[in-house]
Amino acid sequence: GAALPILREHASRPEHHLRWFDAGEDFLFRLPMRLQGPLFAVNVLVPLLWLSRLLKQFLVDGKPPNMGKLWIMAMQYTIWFVSVESDHQLIGLAFHNVCHGIASMVLVHHVVRRRLLAWRKQRPETMSWT
Hints:
The structure is a single chain. By secondary structure, the chain is mainly alpha-helical. The protein has 4 helices and no strands. Helix 1 runs antiparallel to helix 2, helix 1 packs parallel to helix 3 and helix 3 runs antiparallel to helix 4.
């Protein structure tokens, strides 16, 4: 998830500044730059392993992939990648704070709405305050 891009951010060049909200934030710790490559490799391998598992389930088991989840995962990985890799202040801030925030809100809204509808259908008697 988000741990790898954050760790990669902490292993960035010494002149690279943390721009979470661009309010003078500073890193709590720094990692050696030599970890940048291994962290990047793991950041690429994790989604590739997940996608290969989905592909196997589709081809062997006939289980269709959840396209909404695929879209959200692709968006989140792209947003984190651009926000961590960007040296441009506005691009980094926009991708991290705006794009990531909107995609996360859409995901949370969708999941909560589906769970609420399932709850209403399965256990309507538990939806009262008393």
